[in-house]
Design brief:
The protein is mainly alpha-helical and 268 residues long. Among the domains are: 1-116, Serine Threonine Protein Phosphatase 5, Tetratricopeptide repeat, CATH 1.25.40; 208-268, no CATH class. The protein has 14 helices and no strands. Helix 6 packs parallel to helix 8 (154-167), helix 7 runs antiparallel to helix 8 and helix 11 runs antiparallel to helix 12 (223-236). The longest helix is centred in the first third of the chain and has 17 residues, at 47-63. It is elongated and about 65 Å long. The chain starts with 8 loop residues before the first helix and ends in an 8-residue tail after the last helix.
């Protein structure tokens, strides 16, 4: 789930990109929700400052999957400042997780109306659209997000755009997005994994091996990445490298689907 930054696009990759790298999980370990600094006395804090503090608190509860408390904090945020767009952005994410599509869409639309140039909102709305099989609309939102030269994390929107393009079979477009993400952030593990997987499926095994290197340099490569690595090495006939992946899978993820597939799957 999105984490502190907080409900911003930086963390959405944890949901949308299938949580394949260290630090990304569907149940992230989050710190206890708290303001980033000691809150000023209520009589001194401006409405927008109170809205920000409550939204930050809501973001902490959201990442801990405490949606009921997140909603209560968001109510306080919009009561303090009805025009505070980040609160509606987070509302959209919360309602999306709760499966309330009507409220999720209303919240994102409100956030966009208040902050039409906010790339984080465009990214999150794009993520939501892709999750609801509105991929073409989603890709347009990702493009709007990255078109903003002030957007701090374009690589995240580009990786998510690549994955969204894959879901509708637009493989060349997906690869283009992954490569754009690598231009924005060289060595990005998620983008490298995306290119490696495409290259593998197209029998470009040497290229796939090259793109797996930054993936395996992450702190704890996930089992799906290790399985792809062993399949690449199997295709290249490097038994020693293949066994290295197999050993890591068995030692680190003995109960994973990928480990169980070592002897039953043919890497096709």
């Amino acid at each position: 789930m999105p984490i502190r930054g907080s409900y911003r696009s930086r963390a959405l990759i944890a949901i949308f990109a299938l949580a394949i790298f260290a630090g990304c999980s569907t149940t992230p370990k989050a710190p206890e929700p708290q303001p980033r600094e000691a809150p000023p006395p209520q009589q001194q804090a401006s409405p927008v400052e109170r809205a920000r503090m409550h939204t930050d608190l809501a973001g902490g509860y959201y990442e801990r999957a405490q949606m009921d408390i997140a909603i209560e904090e968001l109510k306080l945020a919009v009561a303090a400042d009805p025009g505070y767009a980040p609160a509606y952005n987070l509302y959209g994410l919360v309602y999306a997780v709760l499966g309330d599509d009507r409220k999720a869409e209303q919240s994102f639309e409100r956030a966009l109306a208040l902050a039409p140039n906010d790339s984080d909102v465009h990214h999150n709305w794009g993520w939501y659209l892709c999750q609801h099989k509105r991929e073409r609309e989603a890709l347009a939102q990702f493009e709007i997000a990255v078109a903003n030269s002030l957007y701090r994390t374009p690589e995240i929107a580009l990786v998510n755009a690549g994955r969204c393009a894959q879901t509708i079979g637009e493989i060349r477009l997906a690869e283009s997005y992954f490569r754009r993400a690598l231009t924005a952030q060289p060595g990005n593990a998620l983008a490298s994994y995306g290119v490696a997987l495409i290259a593998y499926k197209e029998a470009r095994y040497d290229e796939a091996r090259k793109w797996m290197r930054p993936v395996m340099q992450t702190t704890t490569p996930p089992p799906e990445a290790m399985y792809l690595g062993l399949c690449i090495e199997r295709k290249l006939g490097d038994r020693q490298a293949e066994m290295s992946y197999i050993t890591q899978l068995r030692n680190r993820f003995p109960d994973s689907v990928e480990t169980k597939a070592i002897t039953t799957e043919a890497c096709e």
